[in-house]
Design goal:
The structure holds three protein chains of three kinds.
Chain A (H helix, E strand, L loop, with lengths): L1 H9 L1 H18 L3 H21 L3 H25 L15 H18 L1 H4 L12 H6 L2 H15 L2 H22 L5
Helix pairs in contact in A: 2-3, 3-4
Chain B lengths: L3 H21 L3 H26 L3 H31 L13
Helix pairs in contact in B: 1-2, 2-3
Chain C lengths: L9 E2 L5 H20 L2 H27 L7 E11 L3 E3 L2 E3 L2 E9 H24 L9 H20 L3 H19 L6 H32 L4 H12 L4 E3 L2 E3 L1 H19 L8 H4 L5 H10 L4 H8 L1 H4 L3 H22 L5 H21 L3 H28 L12 H4 L1 H15 L5 H18 L8 H29 L44 H11 L22 H16 L7 H6 L7 H6 L18 H28 L4 H9 L1 H8 L4 H73 L6 H16 L1 H4 L1
Helix pairs in contact in C: 1-2, 1-4, 2-3, 2-4, 3-4, 3-10, 3-15, 3-21, 4-5, 5-6, 5-10, 6-8, 8-11, 8-13, 10-15, 11-15, 13-14, 13-19, 14-15, 14-18, 14-19, 15-17, 15-18, 15-21, 17-19, 17-21, 18-19, 19-24, 25-26
Classes of the chains: A mainly alpha, B mainly alpha, C mainly alpha.
């Protein structure tokens, strides 16, 4: 049991990653938009788990807050707003779906094939292994939020401010776009 | 121990699913979700490399990207709503004004 | 030489309103008049702007009287009009900035009073005279032009520098053109307008050269600066400009002559007077305002204003005297044989302007200026009176078709008779004082205090002037006798067979003046069939008043409305008493009816005196009294009685007919105005046309030949090219086009208009690029 837990702990990233892939596939494949949203929510939660597994606690929490708390709810609202049932008869997928899926698969296969030595090869270089000692040096366990905020408000202050302006612009733009036109 | 290659592979696959979704779905809402998915895949990469290099810069960037994603969703959903009001549809293939 | 204007000028804050009020009136009426549709509003704006301007002028005039004689000047600088920058002039580099500034001094005050006062009366007259236009939508345009004219004229007289004067100078020219051609749907009016404009351009050219030279010499165009520095310039030993070295007097003579060319055009002197008689094609109020009272005097104003140039330019003055006296005489004789009432007055105006220039030429600027004012009174009165007569006779202008109007329109008749006494120079009407002063000053130049040593030119000019005065008295009496006495000859009532079939019996028409009217008794009808139609169409005769139609026989003249006779009467009243404003010193000694020489003293601060005042201490010679008495008691009355005897005593006009029969050639020449127009046509216009024609044929044969030759070569080459183009180039292009078309058929399907298709293609492209290296 202990061994199992340890194994799970060690492979947490892989578990969450595979679950995320499953959720994403469900999201793309689901016929109903509401199902898609649920798949999206599940995927986001799994990705947040991946973040935690990669010692990014603050980002993991932020992921849950922003996506599960904000964006998914927004999506759900719009799904409710839009009467989706009348689009059903035309089908969920595009006419080009078959080619698109094939192309994506071919692309992915080609990608994997191209980098197979790096990914699967026995000679995969040491540098590609995540180095816990470096992560430890950051004191990520205790102070991840602190470290992120220090980086954010010192080195990346300007992008941060720009982002805030962009959010404001998006807010105004969204209001302008979505409001009822009065003649 | 997590292999960086595994993280890259997962994120690549997530990204691919996102692209496939964008290309095959008719529903604009789902397409938006797929775009979000692609952004998340990118975020995963950032965080993996941040961990790998022992720096928080990647995490900071991931946070910024999340902000952008939120903004994008807000505008995108507003567009969908406007589209629905104007054309009475959220099916992307009904919008073919670009057709020559 | 003495610099007279020394004291500083006083600021006046509302001076700008005097010219700008009419401008506002013009803008309001001109821009919105079409939409106003209410003539009462148009009237109020047009009359109001000029009327208020007149009151303001009076206000400032009174203020001016209160100032000491040497400091009688108000000014207002509004803004810098344009900056010359650094101009190389005689005294080095001039950084003169031309100001938009107004100057209200003794001279411009009088002129402004005249312009606004007479202008107001003539505006008032117009409201009555233009009755027909009031109904057809052209009325606002007329009033707007009149206002614009008043603005321009006020700019001319109130401007504080020569540029401002020039602005007004051109502005009045423009308005003159617009108003002469007011009935532009009538060809003769349009041509007359053009003639006036072109003739004035010739004069303006001289004027421009003149003031360019002034700027070169003085480095400024400001009157005050010019007056301040003129003594300095005159005392220079030599002036070198444009590589020519000469004495200041030489240059001043040149400037004076150039400026006089400008005055010739604007003030209708020989040889540029020809436009003025034709200008009678405009509505009669225009003739009164522009072509008698104000605009034509701007040449006189300019010479008086720049008298400091002329007093140092003896040759220029002699030129002025010569042309003035010649014009005074020749134009007066032309008036003798005209039958068109306005034509008579037009030649009379030209002649009177000649008198004024005579006075200027003799160095008597005040005398000339004074005649400007008296002439403005009586000539405006006469013109407006003639307008009233024309209106009363239903737009009949030929005096042979009038007569006996005194009974039906007594006020107009009385006013015009008084004005005639004034223009003839009968004591104590105003014309006597001004004209006699001029003639005496001219004569005095030769008389030279009893030594008879002056220039012979003065004697010749005086003789011409006396003859001109005789003619003036004659033709004016003739006009009165033909118009107001005898029996009415219009409306089919023609006991003596005097009437003529009126040609173009419409508004102020002068379509055929070049031919002149034929003599009574053996005239040739010059009626053109199409003329009546041409006039009837645009003029839109009121149909509710059958009497008003010119074809209807038996129409009777009627007295005009108060709006028309009141200005006539007021101006006639001024013409009667106006002379006392400049009561001669010599008369004052024996008959002190009024303070002596008010006007001369008033203008004195402006004038540069070459010699000590010539009206001063010396006892007036007996010669002066003698000439005065001769002129006013024998000469002018003689002429008037002669005319009376010829045209009134014998209502069948057998005496003039006999005279014509005896000297047919003389009559023909005078009646045709010495064929000056024809001479210009033959001597200037025709050669110009022929020269142009030759240039044109040169163009056709030589230039065009070369061009055509080149064109032919080009054509041959082009047909070769055409062949190559058709088969080689087009073939290639067609082939490419075909390929493209066929190929595009294949790819057309790609353009579905669906975003996701595009995204898909983009993704494929992205993949291709991403794996370029690995796939290759």
């Amino acid at each position: 049991m202990e061994h199992l837990l340890e194994t799970i702990g060690r492979n947490m990233f892989a578990i969450f990653g595979v679950m995320a892939l499953c959720g994403a596939t469900f999201m793309v494949a689901a016929k109903s938009a509401v199902h898609s949203v649920l798949g999206f929510l599940f995927t986001m939660l799994c990705v947040s788990g991946c973040f935690l597994a990669l010692d990014a606690e603050f980002l993991g929490m932020a992921q849950i807050l922003v996506y599960a708390g904000g964006i998914v709810v927004l999506f759900l609202f719009v799904v409710m707003l839009v009467e989706l049932s009348k689009f059903k008869e035309k089908g969920v997928f595009q006419l080009q779906s078959r080619y698109a899926v094939v192309t994506v698969l071919v692309g992915a296969a080609a990608f994997v094939a191209a980098f197979r030595n790096m990914i699967f090869g026995a000679s995969s270089p040491e540098a590609l292994v995540l180095r816990p000692e470096l992560a430890k040096g950051l004191d990520v366990a205790q102070q991840n939020a602190q470290a992120v905020s220090r980086g954010l408000f010192s080195d990346y202050l300007l992008p941060f401010e720009i982002l805030s302006v962009i959010l404001l612009v998006a807010l105004v733009g969204a209001v302008v776009l979505a409001k009822t036109e009065r003649v | 121990m997590v292999n960086l290659n595994a993280v890259l592979l997962i994120s690549f696959l997530l990204f691919s699913i996102g692209i496939a979704g964008v290309l095959i779905r008719r529903n604009a809402l789902v397409i938006l979700m797929c775009v979000e998915l692609m952004l998340n895949a990118a975020n995963l990469n950032f965080i993996a490399f941040a961990r790998h290099s022992g720096s928080v810069s990647g995490q900071a960037f991931a946070l910024l990207i999340m902000g952008f994603a939120a903004a994008e969703v807000a505008v995108g959903l507003a567009l969908v709503v406007a589209l629905y009001r104007k054309r009475d549809t959220v099916q992307v293939d009904d919008i073919n004004l670009l057709k020559g | 030489m003495e610099h007279a204007m020394t004291a500083a000028s006083h600021p006046a804050s509302y001076l700008w309103l005097i010219p700008f009020l009419p401008l506002f009136g013009f803008l309001i009426n001109g821009l919105s008049g079409k939409r106003l549709k209410n003539n009462a509003v148009v009237d109020t704006i047009a009359l109001g702007s000029v009327g208020v301007g007149f009151l303001l002028t009076v206000y400032y005039f009174i203020q001016l009287i209160g100032l000491p004689a040497e400091g009688r000047s108000l000014h207002q600088d509004l803004w810098t009009w344009f900056d010359v920058g650094g101009a190389r002039v005689l005294g080095g580099l001039s950084t003169y900035k031309i100001q938009w500034a107004y100057k209200f001094d003794v001279l411009s005050a009088c002129m402004a009073l005249l312009v606004t006062g007479a202008g107001f009366l003539i505006h008032l007259f117009s409201t009555g005279y233009m009755a027909e236009e009031r109904n057809d939508g052209r009325y606002y345009r007329f009033m707007a032009y009149l206002n614009l004219f008043v603005f321009s004229m006020l700019n001319l007289v109130l401007g504080a520098n020569i540029m401002m004067m020039f602005l007004g100078w051109e502005g009045v020219g423009l308005c003159s053109y617009l108003l002469i051609g007011f009935y532009f749907d009538k060809e003769s009016a349009a041509i007359a307008g053009k003639k006036a404009f072109v003739t004035n351009r010739i004069g303006d050219f001289g004027f421009m050269i003149g003031f360019f030279l002034i700027f070169q010499v003085f480095g400024s165009l400001d009157y005050n600066t010019l007056m301040g520095s003129v003594r300095e310039v005159v005392n220079l030993p030599l002036i070198t400009l444009y590589g020519h070295t000469a004495s200041p007097t030489w240059w001043f003579n040149l400037i004076g002559c150039c400026l006089f060319v400008g005055a010739m055009g604007k003030s209708a002197q020989i040889p540029l007077y020809v436009w003025l008689p034709d200008a009678m094609a405009g509505p009669t109020p225009v003739s009164a305002l522009i072509h008698a009272a104000t605009m034509v005097t701007s040449g006189l104003y300019m010479i008086t204003r720049l008298n400091f140039i002329y007093v140092s330019a003896p040759v220029a003055l002699a030129v002025v005297l010569a042309f003035g006296s010649l014009t005074a005489f020749v134009a007066a004789t032309m008036g003798l044989a005209q039958y068109d009432i306005k034509k008579v007055l037009a030649y009379s105006t030209v002649s009177q302007l000649g008198f004024m220039f005579m006075g200027m030429g003799a160095g008597a600027f005040t005398a000339g200026m004074f005649h400007v004012f008296t002439h403005a009174f009586f000539k405006a009165s006469l013109f407006l009176g003639s307008g009233a007569v024309i209106a009363a006779c239903h737009h009949e202008q030929d005096m042979r078709n009038m007569g006996g109007l005194k009974k039906v329109m007594p006020i107009t008749a009385m006013s015009m008779i008084l004005a005639t006494f004034a223009i003839a120079g009968i004591f104590p009407f105003s014309g006597f004082f001004s004209k006699d002063e001029i003639l005496w000053k001219v004569f005095e130049g030769w008389y030279a205090h009893g030594h008879y040593t002056g220039p012979v030119l003065n004697l010749v000019a005086w003789i011409l002037g006396m003859l001109g005065a005789f003619c003036t008295a004659f033709y004016m009496t003739r006009l009165i006798a033909m118009t107001f006495y005898g029996e009415y000859r219009g409306g089919g009532n023609d006991p003596h067979g005097l009437t003529v079939q009126s040609e173009a019996h419409g508004h102020d028409d002068h379509g055929h003046d070049a031919h002149g009217h034929a003599a009574p008794g053996h005239h040739v009808p010059v009626h053109h069939e199409n003329h009546v139609h041409e006039l009837d169409k645009p003029h839109n005769h009121r149909t509710d008043d059958p009497e008003d139609h010119d074809i209807v026989p038996g129409h009777v003249p009627h007295e005009v409305s108060w709006r028309m006779w009141l200005p006539v009467a007021i101006l006639a009243g001024l013409a009667v008493v106006g002379g006392f404003l400049n009561y001669p010193e010599s008369l004052h000694r024996i008959l002190p009816l009024a303070p002596s020489e008010l006007f001369t003293k008033w203008l004195e601060p402006l004038l540069y005196q070459v010699a000590p005042a010539h009206h001063g201490e010396h006892v007036p010679p007996a010669m002066e009294y003698g000439l005065m008495a001769w002129a006013t008691f024998i000469w002018a009355p003689g002429a008037m009685l002669l005319a009376w005897w010829m045209y009134k005593i014998d209502p069948s006009w057998s005496r003039p007919k006999a005279f014509v029969a005896k000297f047919p050639n003389l009559y023909r020449w005078v009646n045709a105005k010495y064929y000056v127009d024809e001479f210009y046509e033959a001597a200037i216009i025709e050669p110009l046309k022929r020269f142009s024609a030759q240039l044109w044929s040169f163009d056709t044969w030589v230039v065009d030949g070369v061009v055509n030759g080149v064109a032919r070569v080009t054509l041959i080459w082009a047909s070769l090219m055409n062949w190559a183009d058709e088969y080689l180039v087009d073939g290639t292009i067609d082939l490419i086009e075909y390929i493209v078309q066929e190929t595009s058929q294949v790819f057309r399907g790609l353009q579905s208009g669906r975003v996701q298709n595009y995204a898909f293609v983009m993704f494929i492209g992205f993949l291709v690029f991403a794996f370029w290296k690995f796939l290759a």
